[in-house]
Amino acid sequence: MGKESERIEPTKDPGGDYIVRGTALQGAVRIFACRTVLTCREAVRIHGLSPLAAAAMGRLMSGILMLTQDLDLPGDTITAVIRCQGPLQGLTVIGEQNATVRGTVMQPIVETVYQKPGKLDVGAALGKGTLTIIRDLQLKEAYTGRIELVSGEIAEDLTAYLAISEQIPTIISLGVKMDQQGITQAGGLMVQMMPDADSSVADYLEKRIGGFPEISYLLEEGFNPHQILDLLLGDPDIRYHTVTPCSYACPCSRERMERNLIALGRTELSQLAEDPQGINLVCHFCGSAYSFKQQEIKALLQQLEPA
Hints:
Elements lengths: L17 E7 L4 E7 L1 H11 L3 H17 L9 E8 L5 E7 L3 E6 L8 E3 L2 E2 L1 H5 L2 E8 L6 E6 L6 H11 L4 E10 L2 E12 L5 H11 L5 H6 L4 H9 L5 E7 L1 E2 L5 H10 L2 H8 L5 E4 L6 E4 L1 H9 L5
Parallel strand pairs: 5-13
Antiparallel strand pairs: 1-2, 1-12, 2-11, 3-4, 3-8, 4-5, 6-7, 8-9, 10-11, 14-15
Helix pairs in contact: 1-2, 9-10
């Protein structure tokens, strides 16, 4: 599923997981919102995530999916890497231009801790650490920025990153709601000030966001991403530009694994080729397994230039 898969009326809810993008307040802000419940459930299924890991992964995937809407070309990606001292230790999420996302958690099962009844303490699960964002636009070098985690609650950390590293004033709200059976709702919203927006717009947004309900609550109450943005902005002239289905998907393949093996270089690949049992590789993002016989590894070795 992706941007090129189908054309959807910008004002319509297509069902399932999707991202809506638009503008509001006479073009002073860019707006995004997403519903990602199926995407988050797939991450839980693949990785066997405990509630805190599922909440952290779901929030980060939702945030990165909205950021993918600025990617132009197939193959462009945005990667978020968190390394932290809390029990989760870290997580990595990669969003693609086609609005697919994938991720992995260093410690997928951790003790469940709550900030208050019904609200998981994701910040405590992460603790102190860093957030690194890598924008790979398939140019000579990817753009990389890094900040210290502000709270570990993901939304505040992404907001701080965009303000510090990219100088974009942004409002982000992310949420994952769970019950005994698993994830019931997930999604997010993002509002970004345009460069020529004046201070009155910032004042208006500050008043609107103050006391605004949590995104997971609104989704549970039946609001879709369009309606959440309508409620937040209060702008009758809000303009929606695109609606994009999103999903959890991994582009790994046997061919990609072969390229990864070749990239190890002659010395390491030669060592692997000595094992008569061959090797088994497992994708960290989707769990797909790829087996290579000894003769196949030797054939890959022959593709390398002589030392």
